[in-house]
Specification:
Two copies of one chain form a homodimer.
Chain A: E1 12-16, H1 19-22, H2 26-46, E2 55-57, E3 60-64, H3 68-75, E4 83-91, H4 94-108, E5 114-122, H5 129-143, E6 150-151, E7 158-165, E8 168-172, E9 176-177, E10 190-194, H6 198-209, E11 214-220, H7 226-240, E12 249-254, H8 259-265, H9 270-291, E13 297-298, H10 310-318, E14 326-327, H11 335-345, H12 354-357, H13 370-378, H14 382-391, E15 394-397
Parallel strand pairs in A: 5-6, 5-7, 10-11, 10-13, 11-12, 13-14
Antiparallel strand pairs in A: 1-3, 1-4, 2-3, 4-8, 4-9, 7-8, 12-15
Helix pairs in contact in A: 4-5, 6-11, 9-10, 9-14
């Protein structure tokens, strides 16, 4: 028997993607699974993880690799993955299962820990699942007498899982939760408006999680403000960590050519200026989205900011972009919920310093009516401004 | 000393509403707190709970009532409340604090339980917070010797909390989490499109949680389908359990007058029909929202349903309503996340049977372009249809 204290050599990763993909119609499911497998391969390639051919069976994916632990960390970031487990693969011979289970348990059990053995079985074997639980449990107790482990079926410190799949078996103790959602690329593209806020990153991430590739678009007022631009683009890079295989590019558009004119026309009221700029932003984003064949625009708006009438602001700004919907995935979330997501994504606090500095004002626009805005726009050559902005378009490789 | 086994008489509820309300500017915070207090009073009045004047101090709300436990259950449903605790109020005399703490601990401690005493103090007293923890802890140990309680400051079974506030003190053990969010009515109204889906209820609830009162609007194709209507309205009632004091009304609009014409014009393609109807729905909703001075329209759309190109569908439908934004708070959520919210709200499974029966088709509209839709609409008198729908408007008291 293998010594119970040597480190177990996990050689396989079990990937579960049940959840939502599972409930789709057969042809959609095949499409989604193929996309998911493609995305997983792109992740592994990017991290330089070597693996054998991916094996899809029994509604799961089995990846043979020497870096099982690291693979699990990586797959933790693949949309559509519901959970992963690093496992040891063995034959379905009971003796092999026992030996490997004892090894895995031996390295994981601490002094006085309790454990439970659970078994799931597909195929026909000379033993039942109950037999596996009983014999493996006894072997673990016998092998590790000095740590005095005990069996506790309800709240064990360690859950030793055995999955028998026809002539193979997998032994594991850990199940890490993936992000869930749908595989990236199974839904149409959307344009993500990135400003200096973490919120805009979280909003983009939520839509990516639902399968939509994001085209990041950042608007600036002055080319000079290089540092601020760099930080936003740096943050956009974090998003593409979730999207290997997708073109990691961002786009920057400048309001510079006419910002003086806007300032003049809005009589230095920051309120009006913020609305005029936002409407121009939407108009330009809409034009670009159409060129890029994107199906919508995503923003990080919510009611977080101390900006009296946010909904009113949305209404008079959205009126400028009528051909594409503007999606605000954060609109129903609380500040702590958004913060929690930001931490999960790895963007928490990443660009929040920008908040105070950024030029797009976050202020109450109480009292500004659509008519005021349209009157102000009538005195400007809005179409030309849109064209000027489109000319300023720059592509940035992240 | 009071017998340690008599049931403690909780006479006060401590309401915390820190979180987001706390970070608002001073005048916004006062406005929000006033709204929150008004909403709390409406809840308590509706449930017939008697209480003394609400006492706002130290950034919290103290409610004196004989029904402290029930009050906590009720306040669990008030948007803007972050947590509540049923407490015993006493003087800030150390002896009083000890007696009440021993009573509370005595009734809550089970055999061999561990406990910890925590104290927070505002004001000047002849003792420190440390003194309170030490003397109360000792008194609990002495009073309940037969249950052999032990002190465990890190992971106690029971946390005995003492809050000293100038000449008063509060003793409690339980803190129940409220829904968070912002007080209902601190944001503008929105129109909520209710169909037969639980999702539309969840979407409305999320926006209510962010402070927006909802005006429920339900569209039908045939007046005859009474049962389906009744179920949707029954479900809408659940939403108003979260909004006492707000007018519990829903509105029903019928496409009946022209449904035959739509059926004919769309050549019996369900795809085109669904788009034409949805666009009419948005047009009518927009008109009504403007009348009602609502700032947007909320729907329960997401990518859950097996409907190929959801974003494409949103785009060609939204194009019909250009004056008001259409908000989709569920767009970034997974099916399990929506289900979890539905359970929290109390609408899980409530009207899901409707899904199979409802007439608005949930199908892929792959291949339908905006041009196709506009061509079909050009052959119809869309404006008259909107007017016919507006005439069919019925108000239903819930």
């Amino acid at each position: 028997m293998v010594s119970s204290k040597s480190e177990p050599r996990f050689d396989t990763v079990i990937v579960r993607f049940g959840g939502e993909i599972g409930i789709k119609a057969a042809w959609t499911r095949r499409l989604y699974e193929r996309k998911l497998i493609g995305n997983i391969k792109a992740f592994l390639k990017q991290r330089g993880i070597e693996h054998e051919a991916l094996n899809r069976k029994f509604g799961r994916l089995y990846i043979r690799t020497a870096d099982a632990q690291e693979t699990c960390q990586v797959l933790n970031n693949v949309f559509g993955v519901s959970s992963v487990s690093p496992a040891i693969r063995t034959t379905s011979q009971l003796q092999d299962i026992i030996e490997n289970s004892v090894q895995v348990a031996g390295s994981a059990l601490k002094e006085k820990h309790t454990f439970a053995v659970r078994c799931r079985r597909v195929g026909s074997h000379p033993y039942t699942s109950q037999d596996v639980c009983r014999t493996v449990g006894q072997a673990v107790l016998d092998a590790d007498a000095k740590h005095r482990p005990r069996v506790d079926l309800n709240h064990p410190d360690l859950s030793l899982e055995v999955e028998v799949r026809e002539d193979e078996a997998y032994v594991f103790t850990e199940t890490l939760k993936g992000p869930g959602g749908l595989p990236l690329g199974t839904q149409p593209k959307v344009v993500g408006l990135l400003n200096g806020d973490v919120d805009s990153l979280v909003a983009c991430w939520m839509v990516m999680k639902r399968g939509c590739p994001i085209i990041p678009l950042h608007f600036i007022e002055h080319q000079q403000n290089k540092q601020s631009q760099r930080r936003v683009l740096e943050a956009a890079k974090t998003l593409f960590k979730w999207a290997p295989g997708f073109p990691a590019k961002a786009y920057v558009v400048s309001h510079e050519a006419y910002i003086a004119e806007i300032n003049k026309s809005s009589n230095s009221t920051r309120k009006l200026k913020s609305v005029l700029l936002r409407r121009l932003t939407y108009r330009v984003a809409e034009r670009l989205a159409e060129t890029w064949r994107a199906e919508g625009i995503v923003t990080g708006d919510s009611f977080q900011k101390p900006a009296g009438e946010k909904l009113h602001f949305f209404r008079i700004c959205d009126e400028a972009a009528t051909r594409l919907p503007i999606h605000r995935p954060l609109i129903g979330l609380d500040a702590p919920e958004i913060e929690e997501l930001a931490e999960r994504i790895g963007v928490s606090g990443k660009i929040s310093v920008e908040r105070k500095r950024q030029k797009v004002p976050r202020i109450s626009i109480r009292g500004i009516s659509l008519k005021t805005v349209k009157d102000a726009e009538a005195k400007l050559d809005v179409n030309k401004m849109v064209e000027l902005s489109l000319e300023s378009l720059r592509t940035v490789s992240l």
